[in-house]
Amino acid sequence: MSAITVLGLILLILMILVGGKAGAQSFLALLLNFGLLFLAIVLVAFHFSPLIVTLVVGLLVLALTIFMSSGDDLSSTVAFIASAVVLVALVCLIVPVEQWGLVQGFGPEDSEDLEGLSVLVGINFVQVTTATAILSTLGAIAEAAMAIAAGLSEILQQHPQVAISDLYQEGILVGKQIIGTTFNTLFFGFFGGFLALFIWFTGVHYSFGEIFNDKIFVSEILMILFAMISVILTVPITTWVMTRAVSRQRRHPVRSTDDQ
Amino acid sequence: MQFLKTRPGRIWTWVLALVLGFLLVWGTQHDAALYHDPIMRVTQVQTGRRATMTDDFHNHDTQITQKLTGVILNGQHRGRRLTISNTYSRSRAMDQRYRRGSQLFVVIHNHSRSKLTATAKDLKRDTTLVFMIWLVVALLLLILQFSGLMAFLSVAANGVLFYIAILINGSTQGAQVLWIFGSLAVVFAALTLWLVIGTNRQMLITLATTIGGTMVALVIGLLVFHFTHERGVTYESMQYVTQLPRPLFLAETLLGSLGAVMDESTDIISSLFALKRERPELTAGQVFKSGRQIGSTIMGPLINVLFFIFVADTFPMAMLFLKNGNSWGYTFTMNMSLGVVQSLISGIGIVLAVPLASYLASRFMEKRVIK
């Protein structure tokens, strides 16, 4: 058996032991997400538009991640709507910034890996790199949206009559609690992936000026910054969607029997 | 910080942030004097010849030549005009299409007095970078105020530590990479938790969980590598490797999972402390049970966060492999398998942290939490 199979089995067993049915569901969501990511790459290789593929796959990934983990109906729905709004906002930011910074494709550092590969494949790499940046933030958006929505839904359960304006304050408060540790997840996650690249920069003695204008370096740092922006935006947007949902429920109390 | 809560305070902060952002962008557009390499600003672009090409795998692409006229902004040739020719492809994987107003680094070849000749090297990107950093900091401060500032400071402090560790690693020729980043992981975790929680019992329990979970996951990973003889772990596919790949990969995995395990144990343990404050009569067994419940809802999404960070990054290279006639299996092995292994080991750490955090919190929490 290969190392991946064994590690995957260990993860599955541990997730079932710790989380029971919810753990098994989360593992399944992880597998499906991998399938979707691979599908996105294959579709782009078949010349489908990278941006449209990313949007569709992105929405599917968000839906899978959010609805397949255990949470009440209200918070899952709010988290999904909010994360979809954040995804669209992020696309509006990433597309122009990638056009501006021109960090697409590969840099001189990649030449060894590119040996023997033809790079003139007729697919727009500005769009491919944009798609990469969007996809790499999906997990962070879903996680943050779920955390905020769950926190607010708990407050609603304890104080069902909380005023809408107070609810908004509470949402920002929940955001303040999670932002520090979420940023560290992103920082370590990304820097764990870039360690080799940074060692390369110091080993080959790049000057600071060369590093700050280097295609690969800027592209990787932009990915971290996009992920951070997506998490920051998730806080007010999720809170806003939640206040909308609650005020609508209060105006139509008859229809809100499902989550009481 | 009280001032920020008033209405004029808010408006002034917005204005200040905007002015500062404008100054930063303007400044980096006029900082060419700081650079050694000559920088040219493009004032005119003429698109020339187009050539269609087909490679061995029937991929069609177009190469376009453009003539760029511009002014040198710095160095001994400052103010001189020159025209250079640049070729780019429709896919632009390794080349650039420059526009009017672009600033780019050039290499000057000929120093004859009458005419300068040069080739385009790369785009100047510091403005984009500075603008985006400004955007993150401004949004953090405006939306999350003081907590946003602290979050940014902890990331900045970790960034500095990270840089120092890379320098130490360089001075030892990479022989000790796992030890350097292993001990650094402990410092990282302690510093971050001190900034987020402060120094108290809660912080110590969280620190112990973070280090314990990450280490155990790494040991499980190493055991699996040993018994499967590292089948399917393709170190040769690692990018940018300048030293022994195996310890480097383990150090990457260690760092990558550290943040997520820390995130999760902070969440679980702070919820449990809050629970105990509200209901001091709960027994250790009940605390453990609710810790497990909280943990099992957040572990899935967290593993997902790391999975997308580790694996989405391989998109461009994987696509290039597919377009170069490689099979799906080979493309996966050469591009994505290492990211998947990293996600799985981190995932194991994230899952193990749930019982660990619940156990440590239930046993070592003070009988009566005062605060």
Description:
The complex is a heterodimer of chains A (260) and B (371). By secondary structure, chain A is mainly alpha-helical. Chain A contains eight helices and no strands. Chain A has helices at 3-19, 21-45, 50-67, 73-101, 125-158, 164-203, 208-213, 215-251. Chain A is globular. Chain B is an alpha+beta fold. Chain B has eight helices and five strands. Chain B has helices at residues 7-29, 126-171, 177-196, 201-227, 245-278, 284-312, 315-323, 328-364, and strands at 39-54, 60-72, 81-89, 103-110, 117-123. Chain B has a five-stranded antiparallel beta sheet with strand order 3-2-1-4-5, with no helix packed on it. In chain B, helix 4 (201-227) packs antiparallel against helix 5 (245-278) and helix 6 (284-312) packs antiparallel against helix 8. Chains A and B meet through helix 1, helix 2, helix 4, helix 5 and helix 6 of A and strand 2, helix 2, helix 3, helix 4 and helix 5 of B.
Summarize the topology.
The complex is a heterodimer of chains A (260) and B (371).
Chain A: H1 3-19, H2 21-45, H3 50-67, H4 73-101, H5 125-158, H6 164-203, H7 208-213, H8 215-251
Helix pairs in contact in A: 1-2, 2-3, 3-4, 3-5, 4-5, 4-8, 5-6, 5-8, 6-8
Chain B: H1 7-29, E1 39-54, E2 60-72, E3 81-89, E4 103-110, E5 117-123, H2 126-171, H3 177-196, H4 201-227, H5 245-278, H6 284-312, H7 315-323, H8 328-364
Helix pairs in contact in B: 1-2, 2-3, 3-4, 3-5, 4-5, 4-8, 5-6, 5-8, 6-8, 7-8
Care to give the gist of this entry?
Chain A has 260 residues and is an all-alpha fold.
List the main descriptive attributes of the protein structure presented here.
heterodimer, A: 260 residues, mainly alpha, 8 helices, 79% helix, globular, disordered C terminus, B: 371 residues, alpha+beta, Multidrug efflux transporter AcrB transmembrane fold, 5-stranded antiparallel beta sheet, 14% strand, YibE_F (chain A), membrane (chain A)
